[in-house]
Design goal:
Elements (H helix, E strand, L loop, with lengths): L1 H10 L6 H7 L6 H15 L3 H13 L3 H5 L19 H17 L3 H8 L11
Helix pairs in contact: 1-3, 1-6, 3-4, 3-6
C-alpha cells in the first residue's frame, strides 16, 4: 500500500508527510519507490542537488519510466504482468499508472524530468 499512499499524499499536497514514509522503506529498490523519492524531493526542494541525485538513482533503476511519464499517445504500452521485472517496460507502465498523475500535477516536474533524463535513442542498438 505504500506506493499508492505516496502518490495520494502528493496529490493531496501533504508533502510534509512524504519524508517519513520514504524513510520507513528506504531500502526499496523499485522504480516505483525511487521515482517517488525523486518527485518528493523535487516537490520539496525544486531542482536541488538532492532531487537530482534521487532522480539519477531512479533513472539507474529503470530507464523506461521517463518515456511513459512524458509520452504522447503514440508510445506502445505493454500490458503489465502479474509480476514485473525491475527495470522493465512493464514496471515503467505500472509506475505511470500509479504515480503518473502526481508527476503531471506537480508544476514543472515533467519539464525537469525531460531535462535530467538522457535522451532516448532512436533506431537499433549497436553491438
Amino acid at each position: 500500500m505504500r506506493y499508492p499512499l505516496l502518490a495520494a499524499l502528493m496529490l493531496a499536497g501533504r508533502d510534509d508527510e512524504t519524508p517519513a514514509l520514504l524513510a520507513r522503506f528506504q531500502d526499496d529498490p523499485t522504480a516505483r519507490w525511487l521515482y517517488g523519492r525523486a518527485l518528493a524531493a523535487f516537490r520539496r526542494e525544486g531542482d536541488s542537488r538532492a532531487a537530482r541525485e534521487a532522480l539519477r538513482a531512479a533513472l539507474r533503476s529503470n530507464r523506461h519510466v521517463p518515456q511513459y511519464l512524458t509520452a504522447d499517445d503514440d508510445v506502445p504500452i505493454p500490458p503489465p504482468a502479474m509480476s514485473v521485472t525491475l527495470g522493465s517496460r512493464e514496471e515503467a507502465v505500472v509506475y505511470d499508472l500509479e504515480q503518473g498523475e502526481a508527476w503531471r500535477a506537480t508544476p514543472d516536474a515533467l519539464r525537469w524530468l525531460r531535462a535530467q533524463a538522457p535522451a532516448r535513442r532512436s533506431g537499433k542498438r549497436r553491438r
